[in-house]
């Protein structure tokens, strides 16, 4: 990494997100190359980082999109993703979202319950359309990841069990308004072990074979996302190993493989840059207070997630400190027991691996403006989202306050 964070921080101010588009392209192409020669489509999971320019960058490389709200579908389309490369997943879709997705003619809607299927059938009937669908199967496999990001067990809210899925496919096949063309699973995120994925793929491929025997024409086999990345010293799944496992499970099926990587395409291509406000010491406990906080980067607070934090300034005398933000919550920290040199007001800290589930999870909690986002490509930098200002934050409330004060006069 050879990024002049100080220069960027001076120009765009802090806190700031910085993304390396060349590194994102490398990640995408490594996976694409691993799939070479196979019918496949990489649907980038928009929720990992939904910046329009970042989506457009991946779209220009050929990526499709995995969306979990109609808003994400519209982002994908706006950013130039081909409509037939867009899928719409999610455990609860509103009628309006279904209607809009059908009208937008995307590749398919991924269904997660029988109730949702019946609902979609009704919506499609009203529009006089036939909805292309896939069904999210829950293979009851433990992905051995953090419980909050595990999704493939029956105790999780996602998908349907094998028997229900079979019933749903048979129902859909008979319906005038449903066209079952895909099968889907996604067992969790930040997976470091290929075995659970392999097991799940075998179980779901078996179901796909049964369905084909029932003349239900499954053309898309979607293995979800969840490829883990290195935050600390994790050993991750190699793209070739990943593709080989999927191939092995699906070798007797004539299908197009879909996958939905989010984190693995963008996490390590992003940094969160924050300035030190001051140091403080509470009876021996050292805190470094910075201008970035949990509203900017939630993962440490939400999952206790680890991000490497580095001071740009060198110092020989390092000691452990908690890096905390200004938000009024004890859970507001970016790192705990981080080895850091003595720091002064204005020194920069760089939080690594912040490209996924960073900005996309940011909020305005404590009436804090969300950060700016900058991208680097071919040695050039470009602003891809400007910093919010106070007026942005109050825009949807202001008129009511004005109306209220008129009434009270
Ligand atoms: C979140 C999610 C993904 C992306 O997961 P990553 O761990 O970021 O790769 C893919 N598919 C579905 C259905 C998801 O919910």
Features:
alpha/beta, Lyase, Ornithine Decarboxylase, Chain A, domain 1, binds pyridoxal-5'-phosphate, globular, 13 helices, 409 residues, single chain, 9-stranded mixed beta sheet, 8-stranded parallel beta barrel
Folded structure, characterized:
By secondary structure, this protein is of the alpha/beta class. The chain has two domains: 244 residues, TIM Barrel, CATH 3.20.20.10; 125 residues, Lyase, Ornithine Decarboxylase, Chain A, domain 1 (Beta Barrel), CATH 2.40.37.10. 33% of the residues lie in helices and 23% in strands. It is built from 13 helices and 17 strands. Helix 8 packs parallel to helix 9. The protein is globular and about 70 Å long. Bound molecules: pyridoxal-5'-phosphate. The site of pyridoxal-5'-phosphate has 17 residues, from helix 10.
């Amino acid at each position: 990494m050879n990024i002049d964070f100080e220069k960027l921080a001076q120009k765009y101010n802090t806190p700031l997100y910085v993304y390396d588009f060349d590194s994102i392209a490398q990640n995408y192409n490594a996976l694409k190359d691993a799939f070479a020669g196979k019918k496949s489509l990489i649907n980038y999971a928009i929720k990992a980082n939904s910046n329009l320019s970042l989506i457009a960058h991946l779209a220009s490389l050929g990526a499709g999109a995995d969306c979990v709200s109609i808003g994400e579908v519209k982002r994908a389309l706006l950013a130039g993703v081909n409509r037939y490369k867009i899928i719409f997943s999610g455990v609860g879709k509103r009628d309006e979202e279904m209607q809009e997705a059908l009208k937008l003619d995307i590749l398919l809607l991924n269904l997660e319950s029988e109730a949702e299927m019946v609902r979609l059938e009704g919506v499609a009937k009203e529009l006089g359309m036939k909805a292309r669908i896939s069904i999210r199967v829950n293979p009851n496999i433990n992905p051995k990841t953090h419980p909050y990001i595990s999704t493939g067990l029956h105790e999780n809210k996602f998908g349907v069990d094998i028997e229900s899925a079979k019933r749903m496919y048979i129902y859909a096949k008979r319906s005038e308004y449903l066209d079952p063309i895909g099968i889907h699973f996604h067992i969790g995120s930040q997976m470091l072990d290929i075995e659970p994925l392999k097991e799940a793929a075998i179980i779901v491929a078996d179901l796909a074979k049964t369905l084909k025997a029932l003349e239900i024409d499954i053309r898309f086999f979607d293995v979800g996302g969840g490829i883990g990345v290195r935050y600390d010293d994790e050993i991750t799944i190699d793209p070739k190993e990943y593709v080989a496992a999927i191939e092995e499970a699906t070798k007797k099926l004539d299908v197009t493989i879909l996958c939905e990587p989010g984190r693995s395409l963008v996490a390590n291509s992003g940094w969160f840059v924050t300035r030190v406000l001051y140091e403080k010491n509470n009876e021996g406990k050292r805190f470094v207070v910075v201008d970035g906080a949990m509203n900017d980067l939630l993962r440490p607070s939400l999952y206790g997630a680890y991000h490497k934090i580095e001071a740009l300034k060198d110092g020989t005398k390092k000691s452990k400190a908690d890096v905390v933000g200004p938000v009024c919550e004890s859970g507001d920290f970016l790192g705990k027991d981080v080895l850091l040199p003595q720091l002064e007001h204005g020194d920069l800290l760089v939080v690594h691996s912040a490209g996924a589930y960073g900005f996309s999870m940011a909020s305005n909690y404590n009436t804090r403006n969300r950060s700016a986002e900058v991208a680097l490509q071919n040695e050039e930098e470009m602003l891809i989202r400007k910093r919010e200002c106070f007026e942005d934050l109050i825009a949807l409330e202001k008129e009511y306050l004005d109306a209220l004060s008129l009434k009270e006069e």
